[in-house]
Amino acid sequence: MRSECFSCKKTFSGSGLIVSLNGEERTYCADCLWRLQKEYSQKKSCENCSYFDEESCEKRGKPLVPMKAGFSTYFVQAEKCKEYTTEQKAGSKKKNELSEEQKEAAALVKKLSEKGQNIAFYCCHCGAPLKIGAKTSEIPNSCPRCQGDLEIISFAKFIKQHQS
To answer: Which of 79, 108, 130 is the last residue of a domain?
Structure first.
């Protein structure tokens, strides 16, 4: 199977590397993808902005359109954004600080992942099965199925009860 690079128009064997830019998927050769990733990694990123919140802009109230190049994702709407700022928001320091219970839960999950163990639990809102431990070492804040808030669960207490 032969593919053509969107940028340099060279043909090459294989399926090529897919880039999603402005909603369009394009195929690039490895050289052009490397140049594109280098270019986008030097641009202003929405992720560095104080208004960035889980792939959306708090200031505009809209989700951001990601630019995907290979395995990398860039939010470069900041290049054209007038509200872009890297100044800390007043409440953001409190948001980034973890409570003692959250720190303890993170340490316990790290221990589980080092041992290669998982603990299964169910969403208290929809009953969806969820796991934490070896495969997913990050403690979820919300259910991926129903988007229900999981912060009401005391993960430190839950893990201690189920550890052997």
So the answer is: 79
